[in-house]
Specification:
Elements lengths: L7 H18 L10 H4 L4 E7 L2 H10 L1 H7 L4 H19 L6 H7 L4 E6 L7 E7 L4 H17 L3 E3 L8 E5 L16 E6 L3 E5 L2 H9 L13 H10 L10 E5 L1 H11 L11 H7 L7 E10 L2 E10 L41 E6 L2 H16 L4 H11 L8 H5 L3 E11 L8 E9 L2 H14 L3 E6 L2 E6 L10 E4 L2 E4 L6 H13 L7 E5 L2 E5 L2 H8 L12 H13 L4 E8 H14 L8 H10 L29 E9 L2 E9 L20
Antiparallel strand pairs: 1-2, 1-8, 2-3, 3-7, 4-5, 5-6, 6-7, 8-9, 9-10, 10-22, 11-12, 11-20, 12-13, 13-19, 14-15, 15-18, 16-17, 18-19, 20-21, 21-22
Helix pairs in contact: 1-8, 3-4
């Protein structure tokens, strides 16, 4: 076939490297392969590897999650999801001519993938498969790949000086992508070694990986200080024989490269958050990565992840100014012990506590807000208006509120019966250092807000957002000429406020606020707040339950360092509302924080629109049939001079009676 030249000058250099390596190593296949982190270059912005896929799969199958998917009651649903995943996987891998089934057939050792940024604005994907023991199947797959590509009218490309093992195809432009991709972005390259297969969408990167399969490269991913730090803090926590999944990503570089390589077809308005985070100092978070393993000891699942964010040059690790601008909010003071407060009910679905320097975060957020809005001084104007506006609460936010808060934030979650799109419950509690002053400040803020109504819950003053589920009635007087609308409805300022409220209604539309129990309490609904305010503690509190004690003992053993955060969760309580909404096909309508996040990420971005549910849950069995597979989960965040380590694990827990974090009162309270 007619060949198309591929960057000849660069390829000649690469060809020399390939040929020299082939001669020196006997076609590069005589000995074992180097680990993928030594094969992929340091320009990789994301990496994923499983050194022993068979062991990883066997351990998954033995875990409660594997047994859940193997349960006959789940078969119809699992088959449907497999078909959908396979279809999506084929779409993603179609450019490479591969399917998920192909990969399963030829994996003999490590399988790894990397996203590489060879130059600004380009993102290359390379897949490396150790085919030891599956060499015949790998050769057959290569022949099949060639046939498939030719059937798609791909054109084989001649690469001067490249080794014979490297094959490059040019894919034809599809009608709908003629204006979207360049010829270079429609190439597929693969190279077959005696015990390895390298496939990718960038011939140069595939050729370079193929050339260093045995000896690795001097500028590999493994040489990066960030990669070494992540490995040091995470990899050693899991035995290699356990077949862990390992991962690594440079967050902002990956997000930026993905954004440039996959521009939206339609221009979108709004701020560029990737660029904003970079400008605001969050590039201090250089990398994140870790390990994940199933069925290790008593744990169904365990993971250790590390966020690498060393202080800037000349800055102290404990300094509030270890980073620049808004990134200064990433300050989490260390504490020796984190336990649930006595007011946390024993049957909650989840509890999380975080130590955070709220005061530093308050000052740091100024530049971030201004950057997002695109106008310097907006943040200061808002703070000033709260103090000076005669129609506002007239408070000094920093002195009257922020300075009076503590360092600990607690979140509890659960749900009520009957399950519905509004069944999830949430309480966010911010510790008070000066509770009376915080209470007085919140009272001024709430009383100045015409849409917050004062109520009484558990003998405490609280404020509830007025129910906006019904239209605000207007006063109409019948006259011969028609209806006369009340003058208040013509108030432009009122209309603007109502419009803003409707726009913000997605988040906590029934929120209720109180200051009590040593905390500023912000609840999603009044019933869960009432439960917190009337909790008597004692044996009914979370900290006294056996489930909590057993799980936290394991978490402490795995994460013994200085803590910034801890969490506890019951999988069955946390998962059940989502599970039932999936069964009903109603997940996109969920008013939970998770549901709203999914709508934001997966929706079309149009106000008021509801996304289409991506997973068909109609074949899911009744929840009681699978409840026994859900256990307890816990996490801990340890603080290090150069970042934070997140440890998480799950323990099996046989079927338990359904707890309920709150019950909707039969009649409104405090009306």
């Amino acid at each position: 076939m007619r060949g198309t030249p591929v960057n000849h000058s660069t390829w000649r250099i690469s060809a020399v490297l390939c040929c020299a390596t082939l001669v020196a190593t006997g076609s590069a296949m005589a000995a074992g392969l180097s680990p993928s982190e030594k094969v992929f270059p340091d320009t990789a912005v994301a990496w994923l590897s499983v050194a022993s896929p068979r062991e990883f799969r066997a351990r998954f199958d033995r875990s409660t999650y594997g047994r859940l998917l193997a349960d006959p009651a789940m078969q119809a649903f699992v088959d449907g999801v497999k078909e959908q995943v396979s279809h999506n996987g084929k779409q993603r891998l179609a450019k490479l001519g591969l399917t998920l089934e192909d990969l399963a057939e030829v994996v003999g050792g490590e399988i790894a993938a990397a996203a590489i940024e060879p130059e600004d604005g380009r993102l290359a994907t390379v897949l490396l498969v150790d085919t030891t023991g599956c060499e015949d199947k790998a050769r057959g797959l290569v022949e099949t790949l060639g046939k498939r590509l030719l059937e798609r009218k791909a054109e084989k490309v001649t690469v001067p000086g490249a080794p014979a093992e490297l094959v490059v195809y040019q894919l034809p432009a599809e009608d709908d992508e003629r204006q979207q991709t360049s010829p270079r972005d429609r190439r597929v390259a693969f190279a077959l070694a005696a015990s390895a297969l390298v496939v990718g969408d960038d011939a140069m990167q595939v050729g370079q990986a193929f050339a260093v399969l045995q000896q690795g490269r001097a500028d590999s991913l493994s040489t990066l200080a960030a990669f070494k730090a992540v490995e040091q803090r995470s990899a050693g926590a899991v035995p290699a024989a356990a077949g862990p999944l390992r991962w690594f990503v440079k967050p902002l570089p990956f997000a930026g490269a993905w954004q440039k390589a996959n521009p939206p077809r339609e221009k979108r308005k709004g701020p560029d958050y990737v660029a904003i985070l970079g400008r605001q100092g969050f590039d201090a978070v250089q990398a994140a990565g870790g390990v994940l393993v199933f069925s290790e000891g008593a744990h169904s699942l365990r993971h250790h992840s590390f966020i690498y964010a060393p202080p800037l040059a000349g800055r102290e690790p404990d300094s509030p100014d270890r980073y620049n601008l808004a990134a200064r909010m990433l300050r989490f003071p260390v504490t020796k012990e984190i336990r649930p407060p006595d007011w946390v009910p024993g049957d909650v679905g989840g509890w999380t506590a975080l130590h955070w320097d709220v005061q530093t975060a308050f000052t740091a957020v100024e530049s971030l807000v201004d950057d997002v809005v695109g106008d310097k001084g907006v943040y200061d104007d808002v703070i000033a208006s709260l103090k000076e506006d005669p129609d506002g609460p007239q408070i000094d936010v920093e002195k009257d509120l922020v300075a009076c808060l503590g360092k600990r934030i607690t979140v509890i979650s659960g749900h009520v019966e009957p399950l519905s799109i509004d069944a999830d419950r949430l309480v966010i509690a911010i510790e008070c250092a000066d509770e009376p002053k915080v209470a007085a400040t919140i009272a001024k803020v709430m009383n100045a807000d015409g849409e917050m109504q004062k109520i009484e819950l558990g003998g405490q003053a609280a404020w509830e957002l007025v129910d906006r589920s019904h239209a605000i009635p207007s006063l109409e007087v019948e006259t011969p000429g028609g209806a006369v609308t009340h003058a208040d409805e013509q108030d432009e300022a009122a209309r603007r406020r109502q419009k803003r409220r409707e726009k913000d209604e997605k988040l906590l539309p029934h929120s209720t606020v109180a200051v009590a129990r040593g905390h500023l309490l912000i609840a999603s609904h009044r019933d869960i707040l009432e439960r917190v305010l009337t909790s008597e503690g004692g044996s009914g509190r979370l900290a006294t339950t056996d489930e909590y004690k057993i799980l936290m003992e394991e978490v402490s053993r795995q994460a013994p360092g200085g803590l910034a955060s801890r969490s506890f969760g019951r999988e069955d309580v946390s998962i059940r509302p989502t599970y039932e909404l999936l069964r009903q096909g109603s997940m996109p309508k969920a008013r939970s924080v998770l549901g709203q996040l999914l709508n934001g990420l997966l929706g079309d971005g149009k106000p008021g629109s509801v996304r289409e549910q991506k997973v068909d849950g109609s074949k899911l069995p009744e929840f009681e049939a699978v409840r026994k597979y859900f256990g307890t989960v816990g996490t801990a965040v340890e603080v290090f001079p150069d970042g934070w380590r997140l440890t998480g694990l799950s323990l099996p827990r046989a079927g338990q009676p359904e707890p309920e974090v709150a019950r909707t009162p039969a009649a409104p309270v405090g009306r």
